[in-house]
Input
Amino acid sequence: MTTATPGLELLLAVAPQTLSRILGELSQMAGAAVTLSDERGQVVERLAPPEYACAHTDCLPCHGGSEPQCPPDWAPEAVPVHYRSQQVGQLIACAPSARQALVRPLLEMTALRVGDQVWAAYELRNLSSEIVCNYEHLAWLCEASHKYASTLSPERICERLAEEVTAQLHPQNVLVALLDENEQPRTCACCGDSTDAYNVPVGDMPRGVLAHVLGTGQPAIVGNVVHSAPPPFPGKMVGSVLCVPLVANDKVLGAVCARDKLSGEEFFAVDMKLAAAAASHSAMAISNSLLFKDIKELFLGTVRSLASAVDAKDPYTLGHSQRVTRSALAIAEELNLPPEDLEDIQLAGLLHDVGKIGIPDHILLKPGRLNDSEWAEVKKHPTRGEDILRPIKQMNRVATWIRHEHERWDGSGYPDGLRGQDIPLCSRIIAVADAFDALTSDRSYRDAVSAESAIRQLKAAASTDYDPLVIQAFLRAYERGRISEGKTSRS
Output
């Protein structure tokens, strides 16, 4: 086999069996020898069963010869294969002249199918590359920002800052505020008593020291704040207020304020330096935390897009991955799994069917019972899903969970026949969430069952198909209203 043009080369790399199957179906239906070549005429794939081959030994489709020639009572047909507007190859079939009326339309239909598969291969590669890129950025940000505790939420960082300033300056009150999306201050942490003093008009700060520092980005110390303040502030005696901005990358994110030392002393320049040092590393941590959150959302958005692309192949499964994810998270929380497991379960739930992207539509959408070969093709999707995700180092756990989602508690599942505790817990969780959504959703081959009927079936399958403890956690989550039912024509 020679090197093909990028479009066909990518298809051969991603789905060689799919390509061989498509050409095999064409050869069988047309009763003809079939060759797929690239735009340079080099053979990429050739199927020539002896019963379909002509007698011309130099015939390209039938014998791999150098010419698309046939005996007088045979005729070659050729149809281009396009990806978008670019020709990426050519399909050639050789068949007796009596079958030409059948061969041409079958060739045209198959050329469209091959072009669609090239498109799907490109989409899969692009989505996978985007996932890899986003996850690499996410991992780099975690490592680079570890010493600033960037994996904490901005609110928790603000709480630590308030605690640090309290420990260093010993004030009666500390307030940490962040600017919201409307550039308005939002209190994120507070230690001590009343915070009214930070909004008291004083001197050239008509809106108070907090608003002044947020507006100018410059630190400030003021004394005797309330002595000359207008209503409603009179009577609230404050001796001294210190306020330092939280600045990262030349942007004001918020401010930290402190009021009245317990010793009765005023704040001095050394106090401002201590507060500014604490504010500086906290501001960077907050900025990194917000960036981490944005990148994580971008990554999850990419994963959701990939999951939606898989679900969209079958109108009956639209939204399936999102529902399975919500149910799996609810079950995991009932089992008190740690936060890092919950994050990966979210990814595994969204991507548990990603391997189905390589299953032909005529199998996925078949309204009747699958035959043995079709069922064998469907059963490959867990390992295909693993193969798609395994190159991403940070997704290794998720890839393993997806591989084993269809294992069964008694060892009767696939692909490896694992049983009991040998099946990863998160695979067992996703299996139950997936089964409930499938049972309560319409499919091309059956109508949905009621939630009550689905629950009865899951209970009956505990200790055979499913982990009994996971079933119990599922039932608790269902009673709390946290399990999503599937999609039906009635919903």
